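User: I want to check something. If I give you two sequences, will you return the structure for each one separately, not as a complex?

Assistant: Yes, each is folded on its own. Here is the first sequence with its structure:
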Amino acid sequence: MRRLVLALVLTLSLGGCGWAGRHDEKSKPDGFLLHGYVSVAGAAAGTGGTPCLAPPSASDIAAGAPVRAADADGKVIAVTSLGGGVLAATPDGFHCNFGFELSNLSGSRPTYRIQVADRPPQSFETKPLREGKEAVVPVDGPAGPTASPSPS
């Protein structure tokens, strides 16, 4: 009975710290929340901070579009979706910014590749992201062809 209680306590304590179920990780979890946004150039002029839509040249960038975080090898680690667009005035014109958050990413990876919709992924160093720097994904035009993730 005593061994059963000990096993139960260990199981609950490991599950509570987030370690259970992460068999492919090599170290104790050190999750962080990644904040970022997609900044689409060419938005219509208006009042900063108001809702906006991406211009027709970037129609794939919209609220609900998928955002994927992958490791350096392209293995998808986390998925979320874009929030609604918010207009921002910049020195080079107006941009429509779509925010996103990815939770519980491991700080032990050196980089993350962020892919929005079917656009090519962009790499970001983990250290600044972990320290609160936002991952800003610029979009200046229509989506181009993307490389196939699997060998042909």
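And separately, the second sequence with its own structure:
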Amino acid sequence: MIIKALTTSWILFFLTISTAFADNSKTSLNRCESNNEKTEIFVTTNERGFLVSTQYSSRTLNIKSRSSLAGDFVVGLTSLESKTAIDIAGPVWEDLTKEGECFAAKIKIQLSYEPIQVYIGNEFAEGSCSYNSILEHEMQHVVLHQNSLQLIGNTIKDLMERRFLGKPIYANNNSARQMLEAEIDEIWRPLIKAEFAKVQMLQKELDSEENINKVTWSCLGEIQSKFGYRYK
């Protein structure tokens, strides 16, 4: 597996907080259940492939990189932008006599990657041994990103279903939707961000000194001899 599940202690802490959101505002209203309405979770993922470019030199890629040092030559770089879209819909029933309402929320989450950008220094001719060696390494980053997206989606869907258990959200009149939006902003968006951050940590592991040395000393040390000292 590429994405590790949340630790048991964090899950228990998280579910305790989430349960409090529901219990603190629950009313005796049962209109949602009588209409067989429930809270539903929909999580979709969309990754749009990758593009390979040789428009920049290794010195310029150093400027684009967030982890390199001044003076480094960044021979290959993989970059992407992740997006999270969350939509809330669903019927709300009010009971004026009890001053409460139930909200059968339909929560739709879309996690997506824009096309992953793979850059290879323009010092390396396309199809050459060094070019292929650098591309092979960068494709490990691409595959890690692609595989991680569905796993993040599965993790979020599983935790949300455990939190809501298909039950409607109960609240005082005119407050159920706002309560859910607050929970999403305070708990779910940070959680999704944390899951994406885990992937970045794994990406850094791919760029270990050992792995970089394998690339730069491939092809009879062509990359090493071209730059002589600092490289990424």
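Because they were folded independently, the notes below concern the second chain alone. DSSP finds seven helices and nine strands in the chain. Residues 23 and 43 are 25 Å apart (CA to CA).
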